[in-house]
Amino acid sequence: MSSAHMTMTLDPASAAAARTKAVRSWRWSRALLGLMLPVALALLWEFAVRAGFSNGRLVPPPSVIWNTLVELARSGELWVHVRATVARVAAGFALGVVAGTLFGAISGYSVLSRRLLDPTLQALRAIPSIAWVPLFILWFGIFEQSKITLIAVGVFFPVYLGVMGAIMSVDRKIVEVGRVFRLSGPALVRRILLPAVLPAYIVSLRSGLGLGWMFVVAAELLGASEGLGFLLIDGQQLGKPAQIVAAIVTFAVIGKTTDWIIAAASAPFLRWEDRFSARSEGA
Amino acid sequence: MLTLEHVGKTYPNNVRALENVSLSVMPGEILVIVGGSGCGKSTLLRAVSGLDNPSQGRVQLDGVTITAPHEKIGIVFQEPRLLPWLTVADNVGFGLHHLSASERRQRVAHALERVGLSDKAKVWPRELSGGQAQRVAIARALVPNPEVLLLDEPFSALDAFTRADLQDHLLSLWADLKPTPTLVVVTHDVDEAAVLADRIVVMRPHPGRIYEEIAADLPRPRDRQSAAFDFVKRRVLAALDRSLDRNVSVDDRDTKAETGAAMWW
Ligand SMILES: Nc1ncnc2c1ncn2[C@@H]1O[C@H](COP(=O)(O)OP(=O)(O)OP(=O)(O)O)[C@@H](O)[C@H]1O
Ligand SMILES: [Mg+2]
Fold first, then answer.
1. Which of A202, B66, B103, B216 is found 20 to 30 A from B194 (Cα to Cα)?
2. Which domain holds residue B248?
3. Per-residue pLDDT of chain B (265 residues; tens, 9 = 90+)
4. CATH code of the domain in which B259 resides
5. In what order do the strands lie in the sheet with B73-76?
6. In chain A, which residue's Cα lies nearest the Cα of B69?
7. Is the peptide bond before A199 cis (omega within 30 degrees of 0)?
């Protein structure tokens, strides 16, 4: 810090470089700080099991979980399950996003449609989605369709609410700018409404995706022959806690990665945002 | 020529915001509208801009009745209303989408140069000061070369120094443009009225209507310290006081001028 301070007085370019460096190392140290607790607990547990304080059968130590993961990956089993789960989430997410965006846009844009649609959708939203499962199984069978439908329902509501709310809260003053320049309806949507709702839309996609991952577990726990949820059930029935934790870890990694993909893909379009956190990241 | 014929506006809540307003504004003239709060100034400007329609009468530009926003009429609001997702340059070029990219770039660069913000072209609106943002808004409204530019309290959110700067700046833009655009400016600031106006219209409320017209045909550039300038200001203040039924005689204005400026709106 003190060296950065000294260069700052000498030459603005190197001072800026020093500052970016400082920001970057601060970010790293923040990440490390966040990792400290889980890593410490894991190490402690590993040590406890190795030292014989516990046999680690119900709560396997990190090394055993890691070995299980490696074994599942090497046998190819892991990829089969990952592929099945990701395919379900992708299909359900796509369906839910398309439907949620469509209905959200209609309800947000037209007061009449909102009065017509919103009460029904809100009532449906109040039903815990898992309650649909028996009905979905009767309707769509026990295979992919019912699972994908359940995921799509989970994704639908946050996207629907996000899009509707975002459109309704677009600033009338900004819309007037479009009117002053005589934009046609489609141009108004493309040049004013879409960019204005984009930040809220990305947020709703991310919360929709989070629910999608939640619901895929529910769907797979209720009966599947492959998928990470199946790994969980299988681990329970065969008494293999390491397999359960390995599946959980895989869920966490893939869930976080897909969320990160949405965030990273949208970031270039949201650089204009005047957010508190955008400032503190020193863009 | 911009003309208003018996323009009236009643809002759905039955507020009579305007009644029987008739006005003609010559090409290249600067008309300033002053009046107490709620006397219909913004309503009038919105009717001229075509964003809202009058309930009675009509607004015409060169014989064409205005019922919707018109390419020859630009407007600057009290807030800059820049689109936060566009850079400054793209904001200025927002109304030029019918032009080719190269022509647009050229006009935008020229407009930014005129408002002295060439170095901000690539910047996001959030990185501008209030005065800079308002200059960008003025550039955006002027770049399609409107015949009429409407400004609704354009500088009221700025500090006194920036405000005086931007008034001079607006005047030099206005003088440089060919053909000279008509300006209709709403303000709460008597100084601003006296600096900008060829003619000042004082309005009164309930219902909103024209109370008095004051000629302000001082030579330009105007000296804000001169006696003639002061005289225009005092006439405006006196008319404002009378429009709000405050009985202050013009003679003792010397001492009351400052209190009046603070009180009438
Ligand atoms: N959208 C609206 N709906 C109903 N009434 C309105 C609306 N806009 C303005 N009014 C009313 O019309 C009258 C004139 O309003 P307007 O905004 O034109 O006043 P103004 O002269 O611009 O005031 P200010 O100097 O405070 O900006 C006010 O009484 C106001 O309450
Ligand atoms: Mg107003």
1. B66
2. 2-82+152-264
3. 999 999 999 999 999 999 999 999 999 999 999 998 899 999 999 999 999 999 999 999 999 999 999 999 999 999 999 999 999 999 999 999 889 999 999 999 999 998 889 999 999 999 999 999 999 999 999 999 999 999 999 999 888 888 998 999 999 999 988 889 999 999 999 999 999 999 999 999 889 999 999 999 899 889 999 999 999 999 999 999 998 877 655 544 444 444 444 444 4
4. 3.40.50.300
5. B73-76, B148-152, B182-186, B30-35, B199-204, B209-215
6. A180
7. no
B230 in contact with A, Cβ within 8 Å:
no
Cis peptide before A119 (omega within 30 of 0): no
Nearest Cβ partner of A174 from B51, B75, B81?
B81
Spatial CB neighbours of A138, under 8 Å, sequence gap ≥ 6: none
B83 vs A174: CB contact, 8 Å cut-off?
yes
Strand partners, B24: B3
- Give a yes or no: residue B17 inside a domain: yes
In chain A, what are the domains?
61-269 (1.10.3720.10)
Q: Does B138 map to a domain?
A: no
Pocket test for ligand 1, best of B15, B45, B53 (most atoms within 8 A of CB): B15
Tell me if A176 and B51 make a contact (CB, 8 A cut-off): yes
Of A181, A271, A272, the CB nearest to B94: A181
Pocket probe mutation, ligand 1, options B10, B21, B34, B39, max atoms within 8 Å of Cβ: B39
By the 8 A CB rule, do B187 and B153 touch?
A: yes
Record the tokens describing residue B113, joined without a space.
Answer: 């140069």
CB contact set of A230 (below 8 Å; sequence gap of 6+): A81, A84, A220, A224
pLDDT digits (tens, 9 = 90+) for A208-227: 999 999 999 999 988 778 99
Q: Distance (Å, rounded) from C-alpha A115 to C-alpha A107?
A: 8
In a domain, B201, yes or no: yes
**From the alpha carbon of B44, which atom of ligand 1 is closest?**
18
Lookup: tokens for A268: 């270039």
Shortest-distance ligand to the CA of residue B55: 1
User: Is-contact B76 B152, C-beta < 8 A?
Assistant: yes
What is the predicted ipTM? 0.87
From the CA of B208, give the closest atom in ligand 1. Answer: 14
Contacts of residue B49 in chain A, CB cutoff 8 Å? 180
